[in-house]
Amino acid sequence: MDYPNDQAPGAPVRSGIPEHGRIPKYYAVKAHIALLIEELGEGGLLPTERDLAEKYEVARETVRQALRELLLEGRLRRQGRGTVVAGPKLEQPLSLASYTEGVRRQGRTPGRALISLDRFPCPEALAAEAGLTRGEPVWHMERVLLADDERVGLESTYVAVARVPGLDRDFDPDSSFYAYLHERLGIAFGDADERIETVLATPREALLIGTPPALPMLLIHRVSRDTEGQPLERVRTLYRGDRFSFTAHLGGHLDG
User: DSSP label at 45?
Assistant: First the structure.
């Protein structure tokens, strides 16, 4: 197979078209709309489903399926009763850098909205996973993640009360928890274990983030420790799959 001269790095090879050349009708319409998206630019208003169906001479359901995929991929977004071209996805580094740092590097304004801050005895499952002691007091802090006031994720943080006894008094929930630990308490992050998976939001999570329940989410589980190797936090963070991508720098020798 010849490699297309205009094939963009990272794009589907041959634009995702099988060698036999037969593709679903909706996918051909999706490719046409993708070109239209490039012409319109960020914030551009897309024609109505009816107009697109007439333009490409297909049924409205065919157009609807193409638009559904483009919405899930984050290339389009709903605005009022219309559909507009979405901006680029936020790139979040897979590192010990905070969400705040990652968003600021892209010229966006990070923020968080506190949902709840509770204190309770550490259950057995959390203790075993995070290296804590069963029954010791722990905080659970839940916050909606914001980028330029757009809701883009949901974060749940579990941390021992003994490490941050004044969390409910002297921490601004709209600010970076990592900055608070470092600047206020002198606690530095040492290392962490992370696991990433794709999930669908629960009805409650979708309501808090403001997305349809069918929208794929990127879920990151993190267990982190300080520079002394002591347990620090257990975090569960949902990121909107249509608004985020993740980056990582890999070094050293790779086999295979």
Answer: B
Name the phi and psi angles at 251, rounded to 5. -130, 175
SS3 assignment, position 93? strand
From residue 34, give the alpha-carbon distance in Å to each of 38, 40, 56, 160.
7, 10, 13, 48
Query: Rounded to 5, what percent of the chain is helix, strand, coil?
Result: 30, 35, 40
CA pair distance 229, 222, nearest whole angstrom: 15
What would you report as the CA-atom Rg of the chain, rounded to the nearest whole angstrom? Answer: 22
Nearest to 238 by CA among 213, 220, 215: 220
- Hey, is 210 helix, strand or coil? coil
Q: Specify the pLDDT at position 3.
A: 44
Residues of the chain below pLDDT 70: 1-21, 89-102, 106, 248-256
Residues 6+ apart with CB under 8 A from 151: 113, 144, 145, 208, 209, 210, 211
Distance CA 148, CA 243 (A): 13
Query: Is the pTM above the cut of 0.90?
Result: no
Taking the C-alpha atoms of residue 155 and residue 50, their distance in angstroms, rounded to an integer, is 39
Residue 208 to residue 155: CA distance in whole angstroms: 11
Structure tokens at 50: 């009816």
